[in-house]
Write a structure and sequence with these properties.
The protein is an alpha+beta fold. It has helices at residues 2-30, 101-136, 142-175, 221-233; strands spanning 40-46, 48-64, 67-70, 76-81, 88-89, 94-98, 177-179, 184-186, 196-197, 205-208, 213-220, 237-242, 245-257, 267-274, 286-303, 308-310, 313-320, 323-335, 338-343, 350-354, 365-367. Among the domains are: 55-66 and 210-295, Elongation Factor Tu (Ef-tu), domain 3 (Beta Barrel); 68-98 and 180-209, OB fold (Dihydrolipoamide Acetyltransferase, E2P); 100-175, Helix hairpin bin (Helix Hairpins, Orthogonal Bundle), CATH 1.10.287.470. The strands form 4 sheets. It has a 6-stranded antiparallel barrel with strand order 2-11-14-13-12-15. The chain has a 4-stranded antiparallel beta sheet with strand order 3-10-8-5, with no helix packed on it.
Length: 372
């Protein structure tokens, strides 16, 4: 029994000695700059010094540069639909026919009223012509002659009212024939034959003119000063991307910026017109707009993966004299995975883009694949 305990104590002593030697070796390797002679393998990217684009990224919605919403100008029942959704139409082509029988009845009534008034005018004028010599000979009083004149004016007023009513009824009858004001393509139709439509009510359809597309978007108040300064320098160009595919931008140009802030959104409405044909984009589609405001020269540019954060601020690891050195930086702008920063970084200086878990300030490092 004593021999067995003795053997166990010997084994434990040997294990403790091995552990001590391992810890001593690792501790010695960590004492010098967090890495000693054992260099950590790292991946770096050189700091670029170049122009950095100034852009504003916005969501937007496409719409036809010219489109007309078709709304009924008179109330009535749809008797006939002359077009289908997607049809190409010319200016003046018939779109819908509304029931115009009421307007035509008013036309007939007004015509009859006007005819009667004109007949009364003729009779009153003949009467006045007969009374005129009698007035001169004092066979009738001046009051009687004045009453005859007043009767003519009254019947002329009735004739004028009848003409106005006739013209109004004629316009209503014309408006019952709804025509396309422009050449284009018929959009979605929201009514069918037999539907009752109201004057100035819901749109019947939309005519989209072929050609250019516009993007409606809004610029936040904090970005407005920068955009206004760019506009003062000349044209503001843009890139427009489909949300699903940002690899094929379409060129555009800022053509409108509102003169006041939208109270609902707190932003300034703008409009960008596409300069290129965009067969893959459709009116009503949500897109991404990038306004190009110029560039900032001599900018220090690093990959997004290089930037690190601490309580004291942002920093990067820079390789100097074979060791990883902490360099404080200030982030100015970001764009497509690249960062414009300010700090004491030299052009071409290598910054770490993958940070090893054991890396500390002053650690000895080497590039991946290099021999230590």
């Amino acid at each position: 029994m004593k021999l067995r305990i003795f053997l166990i104590l010997i084994v434990l002593a040997l294990a403790a000695g091995v552990a001590y030697r391992v810890n001593t070796q690792e501790g010695g390797s960590d004492k010098k700059g967090g890495g000693g002679d054992r260099a950590l393998s790292i991946k770096t990217v050189p700091v670029a010094v170049r122009d950095f684009p100034r852009v504003i990224d916005l969501p937007g919605t496409l719409e036809a540069a010219q489109q007309v919403v078709i709304v009924a100008q008179v109330s009535g029942t749809v008797l006939q639909q002359h077009v289908q959704e997607g049809d190409a139409v010319s200016a003046g082509d018939m779109l819908f026919s509304l029931d115009a029988r009421q307007a035509k009845a008013r036309m007939a009534q007004s015509q009859a009223t006007l005819g009667g008034a004109l007949a009364e005018i003729a009779e009153a004028e003949r009467k006045l012509e007969r009374l005129s010599p009698l007035m001169e000979s004092n066979y009738i009083s001046r009051q009687e002659f004045a009453d005859a004149q007043l009767a003519i004016e009254a019947v002329r007023a009735r004739a004028g009212t009848a003409r106005a009513e006739l013209e109004e009824a004629r316009l209503d009858a014309q408006h019952a024939q709804i025509r396309s004001p422009i050449a284009g393509r018929v959009g979605r139709i929201s009514v069918r034959m037999g539907s009752l439509v109201q004057a100035g009510g819901e749109p019947l359809t939309t005519i989209l003119a072929p050609g250019a597309l516009d993007v409606r978007a809004s610029v936040a108040q904090q970005n407005w000063a920068e955009l206004a300064a760019a506009r003062a320098q000349g044209k503001v160009l843009a890139e427009v991307f489909a949300e699903a595919d940002r690899t094929r931008p379409v060129r555009g140009e800022l053509v409108f910026a509102d003169s006041q802030i939208d109270a609902t959104t707190g932003a300034v409405p703008i409009k960008v017109r596409l300069l290129d044909n965009a067969d893959t984009l459709l009116s009503g589609q949500t897109v991404h707009v990038r306004l190009q405001l110029g560039s900032l020269p001599e900018s220090r540019v690093i990959p997004e993966a290089a930037l690190q954060h601490a309580q004291s601020g942002a920093y990067v690891y820079v390789v100097r004299d074979g060791r990883a050195v902490v360099q404080s930086v200030r982030l100015i702008r970001s764009l497509d995975g690249e960062l414009m920063v300010e700090g004491e970084l030299a052009a071409g200086e290598p910054v770490l883009v993958e940070i090893p878990q054991r890396l500390k300030a002053g650690s000895k490092v080497k590039l991946e694949g290099a021999r230590g």
